[in-house]
Each structure stands twice: as C-alpha cells, then as structure tokens.
Amino acid sequence: MTEVPSFARTRRLRRSPALRRQVAETRLHPASFVLPLFVTGGTDVQKPIASMPGNFQVSVDRLLPLVAQAAEAGVGGVMLFGIPDHKDEVGSSAADPDGPVPSAIRAIKDQRDDIVVWADVCMCEYTSHGHCGVVVDGVVDNDATLPLLAETAVAYAHAGADIIAPSDMMDGRVDAIRSALDSTGHSELALCSYSAKYSSSFYGPFRDAVDSTPAFGDRRSHQMDPANALEALTEVTIDLAEGADMVMVKPAGPYLDVIRDVKDMVTVPVAAYQVSGEFSMIEAAAANGWIDGDRVMMESLLGIARAGADITLTYFATRAARLLQ
Ligand code: PBG
User: Fold this and answer.
1) I need a labelling partner for 296 at 20 to 30 A (CA). Which of 56, 86, 109, 123 fits?
2) Helices 173-182 & 142-159, crossing angle to 10 degrees?
3) Catalytic (active-site) positions
4) Phi, psi at residue 88, to the nearest 5°?
5) Cα–Cα distance between 150 and 178 in angstroms, integer?
6) Which residues pair with 88 in a beta bridge?
7) Interatomic CA distance for residues 100 and 83, integer angstroms
8) Cα(121) to centroid(ligand 1), Å
C-alpha cells in the first residue's frame, strides 16, 4: 500500500462546478441590485453618456423600457437621478413637482409595483455651480441647505417614491428630511442615507453624466476623507439616531473594509454603491480586450456582497441579473 500524506485537502470541495456551487458562501441575487438611471425632460430623448458606455440620459418615455428590462431581469430597484432643464444658484428646480424625477416616479408607479423606486436627494444636479447646496462665501452652507433638501424629499414622496436617499452629506439632513416627511403625511416612507460617502475621484464619469462637476472648489468640506474608516461608523451612528432605515457606503470596491465594518456594527440593511468610475474602469479595460468584462463584473459584485453589502447599487444591475437568470 502506498503511503498517503496526511495534510489537509481543501481542494476536495473544489473539484467540480456542482461541488463549488454547493459550498459557495456568498450568492448574488438580482433582487439585491439597484440600477441607477438618469432622467431628463422632453420626449424621445436617449442621449448616450460618453464616459459610461451603455448608460443614457433618457426622457421619461424612454426610461420606462429600461425600468421594464430591469424588472423583468429580476432587479430589485432603480435609483433615479434628474437632469433638469434649468439650473440656478439655489437649485430651485430640485423640488419642482413636474421635474424629471417626480415625473419619472409617477410614470413608473403607474405601470408597475414589482420594482422599488429610490430617489436620490442632492442639490448638485440642480445648482448652476454644481455644489451640493447653497454656497455662501465660497463654501456650501450646511444649515441653509437643509430646508431645500427637505422640500425636495417631500416632492419625491408626493410623487410616490419608495425610498428617499439623501447623498448630499450635510450634517443633520436625515433629521431634517425625516421631520419634513413625517409632517407631510409620509411617516411610512423609508429613508436610506448615503452615510459613509467619500470625497472620491471615482465619481468622475457621473459628474459628466449629470453635468455636476463643481465650477470651483471640491466636495471635501462635506464628503468624507478617503483616509478614514472609524469616522464612517460615526456617520452611520448619527444617521441611524436621526431616523435612517438603511445606510450606504459609497464607493464600494475601494471601501470594502468600510462595508464590512458597517455591516458588523448595524442591524439595518447595508447598501453599497459601485460608482461610475468603478463601472467605467471595468468597461474600458474590457473594451480593450484586457480583461473579461462579464467575469470581472461578477467578481466585483461578489466582492461587494462578500464584504457585507445586502444591497448593491450598480450600473451593471440588468446585465448581471440576466447572467444570473
Ligand atoms: C450626488 C451624487 C453623486 C453620485 C451619486 N450621488 C456625485 C457626487 O457626489 O459628486 C455619484 C455616483 C457615481 O459616481 O456613480 N448627487
């Protein structure tokens, strides 16, 4: 008889696709994906976003088929961003009940109830200077911005949004929005705060998409410093105390440690946003033939889920959901 060495053999459970599938610790499911969409005014508009292949600025009529495709692939939700016809110093079009986002919410809700409609709340798409709030003496004024955010959230609530998601990073915004929702008959409406939102260069393609690159300065006075992880837990703690029903970490891929830290601390659902730059880097490398786009897409999403994200916002949502079907 040949002597068999007695070391541990972890390869035993990796021998076949069926075995690997059986013992997988993390499983991706389309219901946990949210597809971000960019909605604009007019009709029959479908304008490609150059830096985000396969993504478009669409009018409401052209948005509906994209929502239908996502829903039919099993995607759990869509996140709406607006590109208004008109921008001014204080972003007054953000709260316009006939603006692109409220119109899109109503149109989706008229047609279907099998997909969750998230509405991003921030002033940066609506201000002429591209900042996330009212600018006073060259800086974004926190307290002057809060009523504008609250008013915008209420407009989205009236239109029928399922989840309000403030991404502005003003202090006290969850409390301001929660109070405004409660006092306008929307105490049942859920709020997901972009709690740990970093001041990230990975947002570059998004800012092209909505034309929100700040005309001067940057967002470092309100978005988080990429050097900090404990501070993310402070942000999450504050937002939960102010009434957030879910919290988000953003970006996702470069901040997997933060996703894990947050997941270990909270009992509410944790969302993570695989942002435009993460998407576009994968797309660009795949277009060059340097990586296998579908495989890297799935691996990036698996990594985010394994880190602890319950929900992933991703421009890959429909494509990844179809691959999983
Ligand atoms: C702000 C907002 C941004 C993103 C989502 N919400 C941009 C920013 O903070 O500058 C970025 C999303 C992405 O890059 O995909 N409304």
Assistant:
1) 56
2) 40
3) 197, 250
4) -140, 180
5) 8
6) 127
7) 7
8) 10
- Residue 16 CA to ligand 1 center (angstroms) comes to 41
Residue count of the chain, please give it: 325
Nearest CA to ligand 1 atom 5: 167
Question: Per the structure block, which two tokens stand in for 61?
Answer: 């009529």
Q: Which long-range contacts (CB under 8 A, 24 or more apart) does 56-62 make?
A: 57/83, 57/209, 59/100, 60/100, 60/103, 60/104, 60/107
Are 84 and 126 within 8 A, CB to CB?
A: yes
For residues 20 and 242, give the distance between their C-alpha atoms in angstroms, rounded to a whole number. 43
Q: Which residues line ligand 1 (CB under 6 A)?
A: 120, 122, 124, 167, 203, 206-207, 219, 275-276
Residue pLDDT, tens place only, 285-305: 999 999 999 999 999 999 999
Residue 316, phi-psi category: left (phi > 0), alpha (psi -120 to 50), beta (remainder): alpha
pLDDT number for residue 292: 98
DSSP state of 320: H
b (16+ CB within 10 A) / e for 45-65: beeebebbeebbbbbbebbbe
The model's pTM is 0.97
**Can you tell me the distance from the alpha carbon of 237 to that of 217, in angstroms, rounded to the nearest whole number?**
29
In the prediction, which pLDDT does 209 show?
Answer: 87
Q: Could you tell me the CA-to-CA distances from 21 to 25, 182, 304 in Å, in that order?
A: 9, 46, 19
Q: Pick out the chain residues at pLDDT < 70.
A: 1
